[in-house]
Q: What sequence folds into this?
């Protein structure tokens, strides 16, 4: 009988951790493991259909479902917290019914609930840490730390994330393994090749170069800096269109800033798109201005497509992006330096091509999601055997 694995995550929206889950599907060894997915926030269900089409049972653990299978988001963020006791009860009931052999939890809230349920049912927990501890809310950090020793393993998505665990005094409570994120290289390239008609759809002139990003619009991404960079670049080159793919809590703020900077003529904001990789295929330079990161999936996707990257020097980014070889790195908030780096790449096609090729080769050899899945499944066997000993 195959061991049963529950992958537990806060939501199934369009964030990097969620995308990583779906991208792993073709590489899962389902002859060895019986996979299920659980999620906590019923209004974040964008990827549910894709999982179910792949034959993965999906369990919504938080909130009452609406007739259409979704649920409206709460009007205030604190109301989401009221779902957690119910989600824990449902998780315990699900574990009692399905008897999972291991629970894989991603992100702190799911990790905390998994550890509480695992403590009750003696199921081993494998937890993926996607970010540095210092950036979590103080309550999240406290609850994470209080239960951290109940993890059987912790997977840190970058060396900097692992170092943050150590700085916080949590490494001594459990076994930590650094396992970088990965991407499905061949699938990304196939999707990004389908760019026919996109320039016309987005009103991007054929002769324009494109500087872009794909992101959830939240404060972490410092999109005000991103637009300040765009403003400086636009003042020096009139043949550039800026493409911001995504949406989120700060979407209205972003649109107001675009208008305030007089950039409406050259910035495109198509919103969340299921074909985001197609839009990434249009980009000549990929620009990130984040204040903090773990190891961004979108960065790996851009590099897979041979896009030279300009980014802030945070989190696991410098572990992947080799300074001066596959992209250009700057300090957080260094808007003038970021703009100069973008201009440098826009002005030098040979440099863009060389950096892009080196970045693509690096991701293909070291950050393919297949490698990550194989390592995790090997780990599942280990922790299941340890729990049975």
A:
């Amino acid at each position: 009988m195959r061991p049963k694995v529950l992958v537990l995550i806060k939501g199934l929206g369009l964030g990097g951790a969620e995308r990583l889950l779906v991208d792993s599907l073709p590489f899962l060894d389902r002859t060895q493991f019986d996979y299920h997915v659980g999620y906590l926030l019923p209004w974040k269900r964008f990827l549910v259909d894709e999982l179910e089409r792949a034959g993965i049972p999906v369990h919504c653990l938080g909130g009452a479902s609406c007739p259409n299978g979704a649920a409206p988001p709460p009007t205030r963020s604190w109301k989401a917290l009221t779902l957690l006791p119910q989600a824990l009860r449902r998780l315990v009931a699900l574990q009692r019914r399905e008897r999972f052999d291991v629970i894989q939890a991603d992100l702190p809230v799911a990790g905390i609930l998994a550890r509480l349920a695992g403590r009750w049912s003696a199921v081993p927990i494998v937890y993926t840490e996607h970010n540095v501890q210092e950036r979590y809310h103080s309550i999240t950090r406290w609850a994470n730390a209080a239960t951290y020793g109940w993890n059987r393993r912790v997977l840190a998505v970058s060396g900097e994330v692992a170092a943050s665990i150590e700085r916080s005094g949590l490494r001594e409570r459990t076994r930590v393994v650094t396992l970088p994120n990965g991407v499905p290289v061949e699938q990304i390239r196939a999707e990004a090749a389908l760019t026919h008609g996109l320039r016309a759809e987005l009103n991007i002139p054929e002769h324009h170069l494109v500087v872009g990003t794909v992101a959830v619009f939240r404060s972490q991404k410092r999109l005000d800096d991103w637009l300040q960079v765009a403003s400086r670049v636009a003042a020096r080159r009139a043949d550039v269109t800026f493409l911001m793919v995504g949406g989120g809590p700060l979407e209205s703020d972003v649109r107001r800033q675009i208008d305030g900077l007089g950039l409406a003529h050259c910035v495109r904001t198509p919103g969340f798109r299921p074909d985001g990789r197609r839009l990434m295929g249009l980009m000549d330079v990929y620009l990130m201005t984040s204040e903090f990161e773990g190891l961004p999936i979108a960065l790996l996707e851009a590099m897979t497509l041979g896009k030279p990257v300009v980014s802030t020097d945070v989190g696991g980014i410098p572990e992947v992006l080799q300074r001066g070889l596959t992209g250009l790195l700057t300090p957080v908030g260094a808007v003038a330096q970021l703009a100069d780096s973008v201009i440098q790449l826009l002005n030098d096609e040979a440099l863009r091509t060389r950096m892009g090729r080196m970045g693509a080769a690096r991701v293909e050899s070291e950050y393919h999601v297949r490698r990550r899945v194989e390592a995790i499944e090997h780990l599942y066997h280990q922790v299941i055997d340890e729990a049975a000993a």
Observations:
- DSSP finds 16 helices and 13 strands in the chain.
